[in-house]
Design brief:
Number of helices: 10
Number of domains: 2
Distance between the termini: 37 Å
Helix content: 40-55%
Length: 220
């Protein structure tokens, strides 16, 4: 398991790439002590060397978690194991869905996610907002989705504006609000109450270019 100093290092790198000197300064430990932990984490594939940054006398190598990873422990009857999975966009989406408080909506969100794969190259952001994102949805509530797309808003509105997801006898309605990414950014800057409410309550599912954090900061 990851614990102690190693988990502290990963937590620091999750906020951004750092040099060993920067990490040691944050953790208040010596560089020799830090290097042992860095080597162990690098051998395990959990961190890797990133870019070099220019120093006063020589360049400094940074460390990074790259795209991130999932480290899990599973304990079920007859089966206990630990595992490590590199975090691609699909893994990130699944984790974001599982983080939704009301697990009865996970199945429908996963169904919607897989339906989006055919169009994913034209999508910048998929996010949940409203009662499902907040965790206070009533039974049978619609699922509100924000789609920020590169182009062809009408195509996405026609295909996903109102759609039943799930299988026969177990369906939920998804209501997607579709915008071109720049149009939504402009609406937020102009003080749109709808855009502000979406950003306030949203839970991101897909955001490979990290657009949502920037929108959240700009609306704060």
């Amino acid at each position: 398991m990851i614990e102690g100093r190693q988990w502290e290092i990963i937590s620091i790198l999750a906020k951004g790439d750092k040099t060993p000197t920067e990490i040691a300064g944050i953790m208040k430990i010596s560089l020799p002590g830090l290097h042992r932990h860095l080597m162990e984490l690098e051998r395990a594939g959990m961190i890797k060397k990133g870019n070099s940054t220019k120093g006063k006398t020589r360049p400094y190598t940074t460390y990074t978690i790259g795209t991130g990873f999932l480290y899990f422990a599973k304990a079920m009857k007859g089966n206990a194991e630990q595992g490590f999975i590199e975090a691609d966009e699909n893994v990130k989406a699944q984790l974001s869905i599982w983080a939704i408080p009301q697990k009865e909506y996970h199945y429908y969100l996963e169904s919607f996610w897989w339906q989006m794969q055919e169009f994913i190259e034209d999508i910048d952001v998929i996010a949940i907002f409203g009662s499902v994102a907040k965790g206070n949805a009533r039974e049978g509530s619609d699922i509100d989705i924000l789609l920020l797309v590169k182009k062809e808003v009408k195509k996405f509105e026609n295909r996903f504006g109102t759609i039943a997801v799930g299988k026969k006898g177990k369906k939920a309605m998804v209501m997607a609000q579709v915008f071109e990414t720049n149009d939504f950014k402009n609406s937020l800057e102009e003080g749109s109450k709808f855009a502000e409410e979406v950003i306030k309550s949203h839970k991101g599912i897909y955001d490979p270019n990290e657009i949502l954090p920037g929108l959240t900061q700009s609306s704060a």
